[in-house]
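To assess whether the prediction recovers the assembly geometry, we first specified each molecular entity separately, as shown.
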Amino acid sequence: MVRNDVTIDPTFAEAFPMKATRVLITAHNDTWARHAAVAMTGFATSVIACGCEAGIERMLSAEETPDGRPGISVLLFSMSGKELAKQLERRVGQCVLTCPTTAIYAGLEEGEAVALGKNLRFFGDGWQISKLIDGRRYWRVPVMDGEFVAQETTAVVKAVGGGNLLLLARDTDAALAGAEAAVEAMRAVPGVIMPFPGGVVRSGSKVGSKYASLMASTNDAFCPALMPLAKKTELDVGTRCVMEIVIDGLTEADVSAAMRAGIEALVARGGEAGVTRISAGNYGGKLGPFHFHLHKLLGAEGGL
Amino acid sequence: MSAVQGFRLRLRAQPDFRVDLSPLQPAVLAGLDVVEVARLELRHANAHVELGELFDIDALSSEAPELRIEGDLRRFDRIGQGMDGGRLSVSGDVGDYLGAAMRSGDIVVEGSAGHLAACEMAGGRLEVRGDVGDFAAGALPGSMDGMRGGTLVVRGKAGARCGDRMRRGTVLLLGDAGDFCASRMVAGTIVLAGSVGTHCGYGMRRGTLVFAGPAPDVPATFAETNHDIRVMWALLSRSLSKLHPAFEGLPGREPRRVVGDLAADGKGEWLIAG
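The predicted structure of the complete assembly is given in tokenized form:
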């Protein structure tokens, strides 16, 4: 399928079930809410070695938060509920509890409860007090700027991780500009994060390696350097740079909406802008239960 | 589901002695017919009396289990005791133990209640449009915990020991409180629109008292903290402002905070917003 001189491959992105939660961080102003969220979602690009994938969903106005202060919504994804709980506790404990003026609340109502302030309260060394308001328990931990307020638990839900788009571009400048535009469009979609730096990953991986100890290694079929060397390449001579955008979402529909927004942004820019082809990564459809067919995402409008 | 879910009881004559009305549970009665309800046995002093001997009973067709009782019920104790669901309303005054240990549902009393109203209440909502006697939201004699959940709204005054040993839940008191309000309080929230008597917060361990009306005299066993409590105040005051129009202005105030009783841990707090 070719739209506005951008070729869209007849392929699909393959995604996996994950566990996810949303937390809301508020602070005295949005600068400090952002500081906490940036710290909390740092080193959380891939579950391969970070334990979780996390990102900022969006900024929240004072009217949208439980305590009427500016805030920020953060999504955390992990492969198991247990690992998610571990990552959440560490990250909230080290990055939110520590950040001036912050408070943290559950961002989801329904789902299995995992500890948010439940264990961090012990930092209060016995001075912590709890308050049950409208059926939700909050912990108040005395700290040097006053008190850290944290809801006792947040909810964990089943989610979808690993939706992706591959952007095949004429050169580095074109690839970056296209990826930035696509990520910006995708960030407007609720319920998703693009966990890699700036939302973009340049080291897309395949499963396995020639080295027995590695479970993932470079996606040689999309490496321009390996075009003449790899057993199978997806590239042609005009493609000198490939970027990938990975999407984790609370639901399959959220991931679809984000991928569609990304494709539409790239198509709107047109092939002239340098991103000439859009593809997606999969493992033959045998590993992940969620398949996002690029042509289907564009619907009948795509002119199949 | 049968069409009839509720009953209206009109008091015919005052009983000679006090009557225990605890068997009148809206959710339990919802499955019975008028004849069966009339045959319910109530404790009356050291004997029993059938409900039909004291009340005229009509069936009400309502969506949910409901019980409406009309008359002066000052000789009737334990109304709604242990109630678990449904709606119960009383048009006049009631005796002691109103809504004691109730777990869920809704009770509204147009008149006043005797002692121990909402004592050991665990859930639901109980509203008394008149006054309540002593030990409202408190503990039964010998019991370690008072009210442990739900919401008690008193539009009038409360007697002594309101919230004694209270552990959880919310009490909204629109009138004045008697002496020893929140004595030995373990946790929970009491919001006062009126004044309090002497020895408020005596032996209070944890929990929150919100003074929305006149500022109380702070006893020597309470001490002021000056830190920024705006986050917790926003959460609490926004919730309280929805519970009753009298508290609608709370979120805009900046309360003083004192902690105590320092003789008993000192983790209780008074938020003085008046």
